[in-house]
Design brief:
The chain is an alpha/beta fold. It has 15 helices and 16 strands. The strands form three sheets. The chain has an eight-stranded mixed beta sheet with strand order 4-3-5-2-6-7-1-8, with helices on both faces. It has a six-stranded parallel beta sheet with strand order 9-16-13-10-12-11, with helices on both faces. A two-stranded antiparallel ribbon has the order 14-15. Helix 2 crosses helix 3, helix 4 packs parallel to helix 5 and helix 14 packs across helix 15. The longest helix is centred in the N-terminal third of the chain and has 15 residues.
């Protein structure tokens, strides 16, 4: 979870992540180039670690720190926050690059990017010239391109770029396992977290179709009227968000609360509106973009539907589809944590405690559930070898590898199965 608007007037120097500043500096001065940072919600890692590298002189005279973000809204808002902290114009010393929006210049030293942006850069500039540090943020989400970036950076460090710094950051990752696998030092920040009271439904309710929006709206309205402060509601997607907003408007009206949507497809202006403070309580109805991409100041109550839209490959249809799936215990803990940033809070889970206990502990990595043809093409274009030989954190299933390589060969993108890239490719 990031720390964009969470602390209000708290100075950056007072953020919990400051406790590892000296340890990070000592590790880097000792020649350690691989660091895993384990820091919980609200620690300040996403905004402060890049600044620690710059202020400590670890980026050299002109080197750049590139911070990998899983979502566009996170890259944009984090860059804006860091620029404000440093008192600089966005796009100069601090900037971001996302799809169709590049706010950087030749002066940029701290650059927030989405995963696809860095992958494309690794194809056109395989040695990442000008980049001195790569920071993989929110790595516990285990996005396919995040795993790809990690493996590529490890190879670069052992080849053409032994000077390159790699920092992997997460709030929930099993850090010891990863650190052992990649040979990294682990730095931990305890963070600050207020207690969050978790409530469950007493009995199962129909959450199919519009049912989930209706139940979520009912619980959010109850929390507003109980004086719980701002409420954050998690729903799977735009359809459910629209239904819940209409229901909330009829239950509460504008006099009792401001009701705002938040998801990745909204305009920056509309996204910013959900992060502002108002003269009355607000209810933000969001997708999982609010789970790990930003913090909403003032939220003391969360309503969690326990679901999210996730991409999965359907081998029968030969397509990737977005399905509404149950989230894991780890993701649900992240959502509940939204309510405990600045004061004790409450989280209402729209399921019984028995159903909650049956959830998976962690999410399945994307490499185990997505089509790998595009990644195989990227590896070939970058000269990084074949899928099965790449340095993955978790190995892909053999069937997925064979299917991806055969598809590229059939399309004429590679010279046979697992072969070199053709002009078509």
């Amino acid at each position: 979870m990031h720390e964009i608007f969470g602390y209000g007037d708290v100075m950056a120097s007072n953020l919990p992540i400051e406790e590892i500043r000296e340890k990070l500096g000592s590790a880097l001065r000792a020649g350690r180039k691989r660091i895993v940072v384990e820091a919980p919600t609200g620690s300040g890692k996403s905004t402060q670690i890049p600044q620690m590298l710059l202020e400590g002189g670890f980026l050299g005279e002109k080197g750049q720190a590139v911070i990998l973000q899983p979502r566009r809204i996170a890259a944009r808002m984090l860059a804006k926050r860091v620029a404000e902290e440093r008192g600089v114009e966005l796009g100069k010393e601090v900037g971001y690059t996302i799809r169709l929006d590049d706010q950087t210049s030749s002066e940029t030293r701290i650059r927030f990017v989405t995963e696809g942006v860095l992958v494309r850069q690794m194809i056109t500039r395989p040695r990442l010239e000008g980049v001195q540090a790569v920071i993989c943020d929110e790595f516990h989400e285990r996005h396919l391109y995040g795993d790809l970036t990690l493996g590529r950076i490890l190879d670069l460090q052992e080849g053409a770029r032994p000077d390159l710094i790699l920092i992997v950051m997460s709030a929930t990752l099993e850090t010891e396992k990863l650190a052992e696998r990649i040979g990294a030092e682990v730095l931990r920040s305890e963070g600050r977290m207020f207690p969050v009271q978790v409530e469950y439904l007493k009995q199962r309710e129909d959450l199919s179709g519009s049912g989930v929006a209706e139940v979520a709206a009912r619980e959010a309205a109850r929390l507003i009227r109980a004086g719980q402060g701002d409420v954050l509601v998690f729903l799977p997607g735009g359809y459910e968000i629209s239904r819940a907003r209409r229901d909330l408007e009829s239950r509460l009206g504008n006099a009792e609360a401001v009701i705002l949507p938040l998801h990745g497809e909204m305009s920056p202006k509309d996204q910013d509106a959900a992060l502002q403070r108002y003269d009355r309580p607000k209810v933000v109805v969001a997708t999982n973009v609010a789970e790990t991409s930003l913090t909403l100041d003032g939220v003391k109550a969360v309503v969690d539907c326990g679901m999210a839209r996730m991409a999965k490959y359907d081998p029968r249809r030969g397509l990737e589809t977005l399905l509404v799936e149950r989230i894991s215990h780890a993701s649900a803990a992240q959502r509940a944590g939204r309510a405990g940033r600045t004061a004790p809070g409450i989280c209402v889970r729209l399921e019984t405690e028995m159903d909650w206990s049956k959830r998976p502990k962690v999410e399945e990595p994307e490499i185990r559930r997505l089509d790998l043809a595009e990644v195989a093409l990227v590896l070939a274009a970058a000269g990084a070898g074949r899928l099965r030989d790449f340095r993955w954190v978790d190995l892909p299933e053999e069937g997925s590898v064979v299917r991806a390589e055969r598809l590229l060969a059939d399309l004429g993108a590679t010279e046979g199965v697992g072969g070199k890239l053709t002009e078509t490719g």
